[in-house]
């Protein structure tokens, strides 16, 4: 077991990736971090001589592993990608995709309008405004589950 010192806590506005430079699984996570412009630091792990503190964070001892400022540890590459994909994009990928795919592709725009006419969609969808109003309350732990009834 390696005796390299344990790194300090993850800075508040950042996320930490435990990685290995040639790991293809970790590359998945790095792709999402870069694509979304998420601020992160990297600690590369010697996988043949793992530090004890790393095994305490992730008993599987595998990379990629993410650590948040709150001390949450996330591993298994598809799960790390999903976790990061849910984080807000700093480079505004949402607006990018909206611009490219919705505003500039008439077929997709038509399909979306068509979907909004579908009875199953109609029965289950809320307007963007209602969603916003609900989540505003939800975020401050005052969810109005009856909103819009
Ligand atoms: N299922 C894992 C596989 C990750 C994996 O195998 N990573 C390798 C490096 S490429 C590793 O950490 N090996 C260390 C070990 O098995 O002890 C994932 O998708 O994250």
Q: What characteristics describe this protein?
A:
glutathione dehydrogenase (ascorbate) activity, four-stranded mixed beta sheet, Glutaredoxin, alpha+beta, 4 strands
Give unreliable regions as ranges.
none
Q: In angstroms, what is the radius of gyration?
A: 21 Å
How many structurally independent domains? 1
State mean pLDDT (0 to 100 scale).
86
How many DSSP H or I helices?
A: 7
Q: Which structural class should the secondary elements be placed in?
A: alpha+beta
Helix content bin: 40-55%
Tertiary shape? elongated
Oligomeric organization of the protein chains:
single chain
Main pleated sheet: 4 strands, mixed
Q: Please report which band the strand proportion falls in: under 5%, 5-15%, 15-25%, 25-35%, 35-45% or over 45%.
A: 5-15%
* CATH topology (level 3) name: Glutaredoxin
**Cα separation of the termini:** 59 Å
Bound molecules: glutathione
Query: What's the CATH first level?
Result: Alpha Beta
Please provide the ordered H/E string of secondary-structure elements.
EHEHEEHHHHH
What is the CATH architecture term?
3-Layer(aba) Sandwich
Number of strands: 4
Description:
Belongs to the GST superfamily. Omega family. It comes from Poecilia latipinna. With 149 residues, the chain is α+β, with helices and mostly antiparallel strands. It has one domain: Glutaredoxin, CATH 3.40.30. The chain has helices at 24-36, 52-57, 77-85, 93-103, 106-117, 119-124, 128-139; strands at residues 15-19, 40-44, 65-67, 73-75. Strands 2-1-3-4 form a four-stranded mixed beta sheet, with helices on one face. β1 (15-19), α1 and β2 form a beta-alpha-beta unit. α1 packs parallel to α3. The longest helix is centred in the N-terminal third of the chain and has 13 residues, at 24-36. Glutathione is lined by residues 20, 23, 25, 47, 61-64, 76-77.
């Amino acid at each position: 077991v390696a005796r390299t010192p344990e790194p300090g806590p993850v800075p508040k506005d950042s996320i930490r990736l435990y990685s290995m430079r040639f790991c293809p699984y970790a590359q998945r996570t790095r792709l999402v971090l870069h694509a979304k412009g998420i601020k992160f630091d990297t600690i590369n792990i010697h996988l043949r001589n793992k530090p004890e503190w790393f095994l305490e964070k992730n008993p599987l001892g595998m990379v990629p592993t993410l650590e948040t400022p709150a001390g949450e540890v996330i591993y298994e590459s598809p799960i790390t990608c999903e976790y990061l994909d849910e984080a807000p994009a700093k480079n505004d990928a949402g607006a990018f995709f909206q611009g490219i795919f919705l505003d500039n592709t008439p077929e997709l725009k038509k399909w979306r309008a068509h979907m909004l006419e579908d009875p199953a969609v109609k029965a289950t969808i809320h307007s963007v405004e209602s969603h916003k109003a609900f989540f505003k309350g939800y975020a401050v732990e005052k969810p109005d589950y009856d909103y819009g009834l």
